[in-house]
Amino acid sequence: MIGPKYEIIVFKEKQGCCRKFHIRSWTPALILLLVVGLLGSSIYFGTFFQKYQVMKDQLTNSQKTIKKQKVQLLSLSKKIDSLQKDLTKVKALDSKLRVMANLDSGQPFLSPSLGGPEMENISEAFLSSHRQELLARKMHNFLDELSTDAKLEQMRQKELLDHLKDKKQILASTPSIWPTQGWISSDFGYRISPFTGRREFHKGLDISGPTGTPIYAPADGQVVFSGKDGGYGICVVLDHGHGLKTRYGHLSRYNIEPGQEVERGQLLGHIGNTGRSTGPHLHYEVRNNGVPVNPMRYILN
Asked: For domain 177-298, is the CATH number 3.40.50.720?
């Protein structure tokens, strides 16, 4: 027998009857234990719920922070890409100037010495939050490379400026601008001849444009020829000194005479369709000591 047994008698007022309840001695302890258990569970789950709410708020804030970091990282990647393109343009301009100044005659165009992934791929390949650290590292390394390259380019620019400081006349006499407006219809180098269908070497640039489009001197010089010259049609030749000459073919008319001194930007003539030509355009040549060179090396604008 488990513990003593107790009886509780309950009388109903004015009815003259009663009711008996039988309980064991351990029942109150069990009830007290249940009450304490329920109270403890309520406190525990209440505390857990509060912690859950705090963690939920922290998670929400972390997600917002991560989202902002993603936007900032992608924005930074675009800025780095823009910086790389700008530096590449500066290097290309530096290379052209060096060719014109006969500093790096053997290497007219230098490829960028930068490394790392393409910036277009960074924004697509590293959007996941667990890869943001890797993206940040790549950007940091890439910025270090850009900084190093920028310092090297600064030294090259200083060397170039020192070289050109006392050579203003040479610079003024060096072709450096487009001689006319239009579009390139044939590049310098080998091509298929529009007349024979055979492979031939094209000694200049063909710049197509409407008949009558003005042609300007790309640098200071002296007119050594103006008139008809076989397949060139109406032609003008300028001598810029230091072994550089420029030729302008297929003109409709010219505005200068042999022996005349011209300045950069001065009107030479107008685009035409004379000589061995399939349509109105300017044939523009640059020759260094009699050897045709790519005129694109001497165009800075």
From this structure: no
